[in-house]
Amino acid sequence: MVDATDIGRAFAAYSADVEAGRLRLFAKATGETRAEYLDEAAARVAGHPALPAPPTFALCVSLEKPDPFDWLREIGVDLARVLHSGESFRYFAPIYAGDRLTFSSHVEDVVQKRNGALTFIVSSTDVTNQEGKLVAEMRATLVVKRAEQR
Fold first, then answer.
1. At 110, is the secondary structure helix, strand, or coil?
2. N or C: which end of the chain has fewer CB within 10 A?
């Protein structure tokens, strides 16, 4: 089971390409109506070199790797006991169609509560583009419920 000794543990990086069609689909699915997120010409008029990614798009891309929760199994977490508790994002530069993003994650914190009945795991993911520039930081908090004792 995960504990404080896992703090700082890093996991294999994952890379993926940002495609214009996926950006448009994501924008529509999330209710985005601003033209610069849907039309390349409008994006250029707005000063962008290509279609920009709407907020939270990077999270969707990060979950597309073949096994997005492999890191939890790697630290001994039973996925059936995991609850999502929160997500936060910090943006440092825009993400655009044509970018290649790399996601580098590590365990930032592990906290036991209720006498170990709940374990809170905070993971942090740096998102860099093809130039190695940090474009975003994503932080997720998960809760792992302890198995019932018999």
1. strand
2. C
